[in-house]
Amino acid sequence: MLTILQKEFNAFLNSPVAYVVLGVFLIATGLFVWVFPDSSVLDYGYADLQTLFNLAPWIFLFLIPAITMRTFAEEKKAGTIELLLTRPLTDGQIIGGKYLACLLLALLALIPTLLYYFSVYKLSSPEGNIDSAATVGSYLGLALLAAVFAAIGVLASALTRDQIIAFLVAVVGCFLIYSGFDSLASVLQGSSAYYVSQLGIAAHYRDLSKGLVDSRDLVYFFSVVAVALQATRLALRSRNW
Length: 241
Prior knowledge:
Pfam families: ABC2_membrane_5
Organism: Hymenobacter antarcticus
Order of helices and strands: HHHHHHHHHHHHH
Number of helices: 13
Subcellular location: Cell membrane
Low-confidence stretches: none
InterPro entries: ABC-2_transporter_component, ABC2_memb-like, Motility-assoc_ABC_perm_GldF
Membrane topology: Multi-pass membrane protein
Protein backbone atom coordinates (compact mmCIF):
# COMPACT_ATOMS: atom_id res chain seq x y z
CA MET A 1 0.00 0.00 0.00
CA LEU A 2 2.84 2.39 0.80
CA THR A 3 4.33 1.74 -2.63
CA ILE A 4 1.02 2.62 -4.29
CA LEU A 5 0.76 5.69 -2.05
CA GLN A 6 4.23 6.89 -3.02
CA LYS A 7 3.63 6.24 -6.72
CA GLU A 8 0.30 8.07 -6.76
CA PHE A 9 1.54 11.03 -4.71
CA ASN A 10 4.61 11.43 -6.92
CA ALA A 11 2.33 11.29 -9.97
CA PHE A 12 0.34 14.18 -8.51
CA LEU A 13 3.48 16.22 -7.86
CA ASN A 14 4.72 15.58 -11.41
CA SER A 15 1.48 16.84 -12.92
CA PRO A 16 -0.22 20.25 -12.86
CA VAL A 17 -3.08 18.87 -10.74
CA ALA A 18 -1.36 19.34 -7.38
CA TYR A 19 -0.28 22.90 -8.10
CA VAL A 20 -3.64 23.92 -9.53
CA VAL A 21 -5.41 22.50 -6.47
CA LEU A 22 -3.06 24.20 -4.02
CA GLY A 23 -3.10 27.47 -5.97
CA VAL A 24 -6.88 27.67 -6.35
CA PHE A 25 -7.50 26.78 -2.71
CA LEU A 26 -5.00 29.28 -1.30
CA ILE A 27 -5.97 32.11 -3.66
CA ALA A 28 -9.69 31.67 -3.02
CA THR A 29 -9.36 31.44 0.75
CA GLY A 30 -6.82 34.26 0.85
CA LEU A 31 -9.10 36.63 -1.06
CA PHE A 32 -12.12 35.89 1.11
CA VAL A 33 -10.26 35.94 4.42
CA TRP A 34 -8.09 39.01 3.85
CA VAL A 35 -9.22 41.02 0.80
CA PHE A 36 -12.97 41.02 0.10
CA PRO A 37 -14.54 43.59 2.49
CA ASP A 38 -17.72 41.58 3.16
CA SER A 39 -15.76 38.66 4.60
CA SER A 40 -12.31 40.04 5.46
CA VAL A 41 -11.04 39.36 8.97
CA LEU A 42 -9.54 42.85 9.03
CA ASP A 43 -12.93 44.49 8.41
CA TYR A 44 -14.95 41.99 10.44
CA GLY A 45 -13.49 43.19 13.73
CA TYR A 46 -13.35 39.79 15.45
CA ALA A 47 -10.27 37.61 15.85
CA ASP A 48 -11.47 34.36 14.31
CA LEU A 49 -11.15 32.37 11.09
CA GLN A 50 -14.81 31.53 10.63
CA THR A 51 -14.68 32.81 7.06
CA LEU A 52 -12.05 30.22 6.20
CA PHE A 53 -13.90 27.35 7.85
CA ASN A 54 -17.22 28.31 6.24
CA LEU A 55 -15.68 28.64 2.78
CA ALA A 56 -13.22 25.72 2.71
CA PRO A 57 -15.85 22.93 2.55
CA TRP A 58 -17.37 24.46 -0.60
CA ILE A 59 -13.96 24.74 -2.25
CA PHE A 60 -13.14 21.16 -1.27
CA LEU A 61 -16.47 20.15 -2.81
CA PHE A 62 -14.92 20.78 -6.24
CA LEU A 63 -11.18 20.46 -5.67
CA ILE A 64 -11.15 17.02 -4.05
CA PRO A 65 -13.22 15.38 -6.84
CA ALA A 66 -10.73 16.97 -9.26
CA ILE A 67 -7.95 15.15 -7.38
CA THR A 68 -9.70 11.79 -7.14
CA MET A 69 -11.29 11.60 -10.60
CA ARG A 70 -8.20 10.03 -12.18
CA THR A 71 -7.49 7.36 -9.55
CA PHE A 72 -9.28 4.44 -11.22
CA ALA A 73 -10.96 6.06 -14.24
CA GLU A 74 -7.59 6.83 -15.85
CA GLU A 75 -6.36 3.28 -15.22
CA LYS A 76 -9.49 1.88 -16.88
CA LYS A 77 -9.27 4.20 -19.87
CA ALA A 78 -5.56 3.49 -20.40
CA GLY A 79 -6.10 -0.26 -20.05
CA THR A 80 -3.65 -0.57 -17.17
CA ILE A 81 -6.24 -1.50 -14.56
CA GLU A 82 -5.96 -5.22 -15.31
CA LEU A 83 -2.19 -5.05 -15.02
CA LEU A 84 -2.51 -3.31 -11.66
CA LEU A 85 -5.09 -5.75 -10.34
CA THR A 86 -2.99 -8.80 -11.31
CA ARG A 87 -0.06 -7.59 -9.22
CA PRO A 88 0.53 -9.35 -5.87
CA LEU A 89 -1.57 -6.71 -4.12
CA THR A 90 -4.97 -6.98 -2.49
CA ASP A 91 -7.81 -4.72 -3.56
CA GLY A 92 -7.65 -3.12 -0.13
CA GLN A 93 -3.99 -2.20 -0.57
CA ILE A 94 -4.60 -0.67 -3.99
CA ILE A 95 -7.62 1.32 -2.81
CA GLY A 96 -5.89 2.37 0.41
CA GLY A 97 -2.77 3.59 -1.40
CA LYS A 98 -4.71 5.63 -3.94
CA TYR A 99 -7.09 7.00 -1.32
CA LEU A 100 -4.33 8.08 1.07
CA ALA A 101 -2.42 9.80 -1.75
CA CYS A 102 -5.51 11.86 -2.62
CA LEU A 103 -6.18 12.67 1.03
CA LEU A 104 -2.55 13.64 1.64
CA LEU A 105 -2.66 16.14 -1.22
CA ALA A 106 -5.91 17.64 0.11
CA LEU A 107 -4.44 17.99 3.60
CA LEU A 108 -1.32 19.56 2.12
CA ALA A 109 -3.50 22.46 0.97
CA LEU A 110 -4.47 23.18 4.59
CA ILE A 111 -0.91 23.56 5.90
CA PRO A 112 -0.23 27.06 4.45
CA THR A 113 -3.47 28.32 6.02
CA LEU A 114 -1.84 27.94 9.43
CA LEU A 115 -0.26 31.30 8.56
CA TYR A 116 -3.76 32.76 8.74
CA TYR A 117 -4.10 31.56 12.32
CA PHE A 118 -0.66 32.92 13.24
CA SER A 119 -1.51 36.30 11.66
CA VAL A 120 -4.85 36.60 13.47
CA TYR A 121 -3.18 35.48 16.70
CA LYS A 122 -0.64 38.30 16.39
CA LEU A 123 -3.09 40.96 15.18
CA SER A 124 -5.73 40.31 17.84
CA SER A 125 -6.05 42.69 20.77
CA PRO A 126 -4.77 41.62 23.19
CA GLU A 127 -2.37 39.34 21.36
CA GLY A 128 -3.55 35.75 21.40
CA ASN A 129 -7.22 36.68 21.86
CA ILE A 130 -8.51 33.96 19.56
CA ASP A 131 -10.49 30.83 20.38
CA SER A 132 -7.74 28.29 19.76
CA ALA A 133 -9.91 25.32 20.79
CA ALA A 134 -12.51 26.18 18.16
CA THR A 135 -9.76 26.69 15.60
CA VAL A 136 -8.22 23.29 16.31
CA GLY A 137 -11.66 21.68 16.16
CA SER A 138 -12.37 23.40 12.85
CA TYR A 139 -9.10 22.17 11.35
CA LEU A 140 -9.90 18.66 12.58
CA GLY A 141 -13.34 18.97 11.01
CA LEU A 142 -11.83 20.08 7.69
CA ALA A 143 -9.40 17.15 7.74
CA LEU A 144 -12.23 14.69 8.38
CA LEU A 145 -14.37 16.39 5.75
CA ALA A 146 -11.54 15.98 3.24
CA ALA A 147 -11.29 12.31 4.22
CA VAL A 148 -14.98 11.76 3.44
CA PHE A 149 -14.88 13.70 0.17
CA ALA A 150 -11.77 11.78 -0.94
CA ALA A 151 -13.46 8.45 -0.19
CA ILE A 152 -16.53 9.45 -2.19
CA GLY A 153 -14.33 10.67 -5.03
CA VAL A 154 -12.37 7.40 -5.19
CA LEU A 155 -15.66 5.49 -5.25
CA ALA A 156 -16.95 7.63 -8.13
CA SER A 157 -13.73 7.03 -10.06
CA ALA A 158 -14.04 3.27 -9.56
CA LEU A 159 -17.53 3.30 -11.09
CA THR A 160 -16.56 4.70 -14.50
CA ARG A 161 -13.74 4.97 -17.01
CA ASP A 162 -14.47 8.63 -17.82
CA GLN A 163 -12.76 11.18 -15.59
CA ILE A 164 -15.33 13.91 -16.26
CA ILE A 165 -18.18 11.62 -15.24
CA ALA A 166 -16.21 10.57 -12.16
CA PHE A 167 -15.74 14.26 -11.27
CA LEU A 168 -19.43 15.09 -11.69
CA VAL A 169 -20.62 12.03 -9.74
CA ALA A 170 -18.19 12.86 -6.92
CA VAL A 171 -19.31 16.51 -6.77
CA VAL A 172 -22.97 15.51 -6.60
CA GLY A 173 -22.25 12.84 -3.98
CA CYS A 174 -20.19 15.22 -1.83
CA PHE A 175 -22.83 17.95 -2.12
CA LEU A 176 -25.65 15.62 -1.10
CA ILE A 177 -23.87 14.29 1.95
CA TYR A 178 -22.63 17.75 3.00
CA SER A 179 -25.69 19.91 2.35
CA GLY A 180 -28.48 17.65 1.12
CA PHE A 181 -29.55 16.30 4.50
CA ASP A 182 -29.55 19.78 6.03
CA SER A 183 -31.78 21.02 3.22
CA LEU A 184 -34.14 18.10 3.74
CA ALA A 185 -34.19 18.66 7.51
CA SER A 186 -35.15 22.30 7.00
CA VAL A 187 -38.53 21.27 5.56
CA LEU A 188 -39.23 18.80 8.36
CA GLN A 189 -40.39 19.46 11.88
CA GLY A 190 -39.74 18.06 15.33
CA SER A 191 -37.29 15.31 16.15
CA SER A 192 -37.32 13.97 12.58
CA ALA A 193 -35.56 17.13 11.40
CA TYR A 194 -32.80 16.59 13.96
CA TYR A 195 -32.22 12.96 13.05
CA VAL A 196 -32.18 13.71 9.32
CA SER A 197 -29.65 16.52 9.82
CA GLN A 198 -27.42 14.12 11.77
CA LEU A 199 -27.14 11.95 8.65
CA GLY A 200 -25.25 14.74 6.88
CA ILE A 201 -21.75 16.05 7.41
CA ALA A 202 -22.65 19.69 8.06
CA ALA A 203 -24.13 19.08 11.54
CA HIS A 204 -21.08 17.14 12.71
CA TYR A 205 -18.72 19.66 11.14
CA ARG A 206 -20.45 22.51 12.99
CA ASP A 207 -20.01 20.68 16.30
CA LEU A 208 -16.29 20.25 15.70
CA SER A 209 -15.99 23.92 14.66
CA LYS A 210 -17.13 24.87 18.16
CA GLY A 211 -14.19 23.00 19.63
CA LEU A 212 -16.39 20.12 20.81
CA VAL A 213 -14.60 16.92 19.80
CA ASP A 214 -17.34 14.34 20.40
CA SER A 215 -16.68 10.65 19.81
CA ARG A 216 -20.03 10.42 17.99
CA ASP A 217 -18.82 12.89 15.38
CA LEU A 218 -15.56 10.99 14.91
CA VAL A 219 -17.41 7.68 14.57
CA TYR A 220 -19.68 9.26 11.97
CA PHE A 221 -16.81 10.47 9.78
CA PHE A 222 -14.84 7.23 10.01
CA SER A 223 -17.97 5.20 9.30
CA VAL A 224 -18.76 7.14 6.12
CA VAL A 225 -15.17 6.72 4.93
CA ALA A 226 -15.26 2.99 5.66
CA VAL A 227 -18.56 2.53 3.82
CA ALA A 228 -17.34 4.46 0.77
CA LEU A 229 -14.07 2.52 0.58
CA GLN A 230 -15.89 -0.79 1.01
CA ALA A 231 -18.23 0.22 -1.83
CA THR A 232 -15.15 0.98 -3.93
CA ARG A 233 -13.85 -2.50 -3.18
CA LEU A 234 -17.16 -4.02 -4.30
CA ALA A 235 -17.03 -1.92 -7.48
CA LEU A 236 -13.60 -3.33 -8.31
CA ARG A 237 -14.69 -6.87 -7.50
CA SER A 238 -17.56 -6.51 -9.96
CA ARG A 239 -15.04 -7.19 -12.73
CA ASN A 240 -15.23 -10.84 -11.71
CA TRP A 241 -18.99 -11.04 -11.91
